[in-house]
Design brief:
Layout (H helix, E strand, L loop, with lengths): L2 H25 L4 E7 L4 E8 L10 E6 L5 E5 L8 E5 L5 E12 L2 E6 L9 E2 L3 E7 L2 E6 L6 E4 L3 H37 L5 H33 L11 H11 L20 E6 L2 H4 L10 H12 L5 E5 L7 H13 L4 E6 L21 H10 L1 H16 L6 H9 L5 H18 L5 E5 L12 H14 L2 E4 L1 H4 L10 E3 L2 E4 L1 H28 L1
Parallel strand pairs: 12-13, 12-14, 14-15, 15-16
Antiparallel strand pairs: 1-4, 1-6, 2-3, 2-5, 5-11, 6-7, 6-10, 8-11, 9-10, 17-18
Helix pairs in contact: 1-2, 2-3, 4-8, 6-14, 7-11, 8-9
């Protein structure tokens, strides 16, 4: 072949490689913005984006609930090649807010990072922003209303050049790899036929043999991965961030209201309804349960409406995954702004954990942490391997279970953790009752062992507190006992011990039986008044 012909083939191959790389970059998904933010009260962070020929719009935005005590938030964006500018609405209420960091990444590579020392000044303030001050710990400002805004130009010549250079380099690497593959393939074939015997042909033959084995294994893994995804197609959640969690997250997030809570829209001002506010964690939030109307607050709300058609009830589910007594106390001010006529607190054993020194029950990763995060969020096979590894460590005594950890930490009522948890529970209950808001508790047990629950002492402490303070409380353990020998029916799925739809219905029936008459009477008294 002539030199010109070879050059032409090389050019065509490189163009093909570049097309594959660019297509993969454009269609692999979008980028992510990560914002470190401190807010004075619960609210909503919303980020809008626009392209080169579009403006800001609700359908081109992402939002997330923000709260005191949590600092880092991640939201999805479009592909960086299509991104021109961002509009950041950090908080939808008045108060002092701090932005400590902003980073935009794609494919695990941070493309833009703004810190107090480098770049946060690029955020241009809009309306309802005053007292703006860039300090060593971040950008401080005072929000004067419900819509403070900052704008940031993302598109820049250095960023565009860096992305394009990266794509060109990846295409070049792919081009070289493909060329080497074909050259080694020819040498391996000649060696296998005996037409060429040399050290180089032997290396090529050996390399292609290894490649063939690895390629076959990769095909098996790929087939196994997609086969398992299909087999577990009904799994909507796990107890941590995994492939299943990410696959279903959009479905759950699409059910959020304007304030960021999962559920129906509601106004801060309640009007003349009898308002019941439910606070809780991922149990009341409904992890693993779709649609949100199958959660126990919505189910008993329907029972109230059916039983008392002449009274106006409104049930607001303010539950958020990961909440505990510390955060419930931080949220109390916002809860009181809703003017509740009754607050029902959904309790679970991990609410009593005020600090976590859980190295003893955490499973080491099978691979380095960065790779682990990528694999656990994208692979069912890796998730299962990590789960088996955890079981082996527990069985061989190298790792505690979470239950054993909680027993060690809280069994003694005089231990610092137990004392602190009891103080926080009392602070929460007193915070409502001192303002004339009736407060009740519904206790969910661990769905692992109901008859001989090793953490039952935590429920007993809460029930004793209810008796002491004359609070209306309900322990759901007796209602779930008939399922002791078929506990998986109460689980959201085989990997997630959060309540299933059945468990939510049972809870709703019990709550209605215990609290329904009280709420009906209180609503009638309010209506008469």
């Amino acid at each position: 072949m002539t030199g010109d012909g070879t050059m032409k083939n090389h050019l065509l191959l490189y163009i093909a490689a570049l097309a594959i790389v660019v297509t993969g970059y454009l269609f692999q998904g979008g980028s992510t913005v990560e914002i470190d933010l401190q807010v004075p009260a619960p609210g909503v962070l919303q980020v809008f984006w626009k392209g080169y020929d579009s403006g800001y719009a609700e359908e081109r935005s992402a939002k997330i609930l923000v709260r005191p005590g949590q600092e880092r938030y991640r939201l999805p964006l479009v592909n960086t090649l299509l991104l021109d500018s961002l509009r950041i609405d950090p908080f939808n209420g008045p108060g002092i807010v701090r932005i400590s960091r902003l980073a935009i990444s794609q494919l695990g590579v941070t493309l833009v990072e703004l810190t107090p020392a480098d770049g946060l000044a690029r955020l241009q303030p809009g309306g309802q922003v005053t007292a703006l001050s860039l300090r060593a710990d971040g950008l401080h400002f005072t929000s004067m209303g419900k819509d403070p805004q900052f704008e940031m130009r993302v598109r820049s010549l250095p960023l565009t050049a860096a992305v394009i250079a990266g794509l060109l380099l990846l295409a070049l690497i792919l081009h070289v790899l493909v060329l080497q593959f074909f050259r080694m393939s020819r040498l391996a074939v000649l060696h296998s036929r005996g037409e060429r015997r040399s050290f180089r042909s032997f290396v090529a033959y050996l390399a292609m043999s290894v490649f063939s084995v690895l390629f076959f294994l990769a095909l098996c893994l790929l087939a196994g991965e997609y086969g398992l995804r299909w087999y577990y197609r009904d799994v909507l959640s796990t107890s941590r961030v995994t492939y299943f969690y990410n696959r279903s997250l959009g479905k759950f997030m699409s059910e959020r209201n304007a304030l960021g809570f999962r559920g129906k829209q509601f106004e801060i001002s309640k009007g003349d309804v009898f308002r019941i506010v439910v606070i809780g964690d991922s149990f009341a939030w409904g992890q693993g349960v779709l649609p949100y109307t199958d959660r126990f607050p919505e189910v008993f709300a329907a029972k109230l409406a059916e039983t008392y058609p002449d009274r106006r009830f409104e049930v607001i589910n303010m539950a958020l995954a990961g909440m505990n007594l510390i955060q419930h106390n931080q949220f109390q001010k916002f809860t009181l702004q809703l003017e509740p006529d009754y607050v029902l607190y959904q309790w679970y054993v991990n609410d009593m954990e005020t600090t976590r020194e859980g190295a003893a029950f955490k499973t080491p990763t099978l691979v380095p942490r960065a790779l682990h995060t990528t694999l656990i969020e994208h692979s069912v096979i890796y998730f299962l391997l990590q789960d088996v590894y955890r079981e082996i460590r527990v069985a061989t005594g190298k790792q505690q279970t979470y239950t054993a950890y909680m027993v060690d930490k809280l069994k003694d009522p005089a231990s610092p953790g137990a004392v602190e948890a009891q103080k926080l529970l009392d602070k929460l209950a007193t915070g409502f009752s001192s303002r004339g808001v009736p407060f009740g508790i519904v206790l969910f047990p661990e769905f692992s062992g109901l008859r001989d629950n090793p953490l039952g002492f935590l429920q007993e402490r809460v029930l004793s507190y209810c008796t002491e303070k004359q609070l209306q409380c309900l322990d759901l353990t007796p209602a779930y006992l008939p399922y002791q020998d078929r506990m998986l029916e109460l689980w959201a799925n085989r990997f997630d011990a959060h309540p299933s739809k059945l468990a939510h219905r049972i809870a709703a029936d019990e709550i209605f039986a215990v609290f329904g008459e009280t709420w009906g009477r209180m609503a009638a008294e309010k209506q008469a008044y």
